[in-house]
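User: Can you predict the 3D structure for this chain?
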Amino acid sequence: MARRAHRLELGGDLGLRDAESLRGQLLDAVAAHKSVEIGTGGLTAIDVSVIQLLIGAQKLAKARKQRLTITAPSDGRLRAAVERAGLLAVSGNGPLEINWHGRDAAS
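Assistant: Here is the predicted structure, written as structure tokens:
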């Protein structure tokens, strides 16, 4: 029977002032669980420092042969921030691998 991923839900306005705390949460989650899923549907704002942390957490999980999945609404705050930062590749993902869901998820 497959184990469910540990879920970490991000919400509110996340920025540089939250980076240290979020970094600890991400490191703890990757250290304690083989599979981590990060939900971003509750974000009201996000800046590039948080995006950098998410990229780093995914790289760490990959290096440890673990999974760190990010799920996000295709019309949500994360997508807008990734686009503003120039990190959204033509294929829909750039250095940050995100499972987009909702309207226009394939774009």
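The chain is about 35% helix and 30% strand. The radius of gyration is 13 Å.
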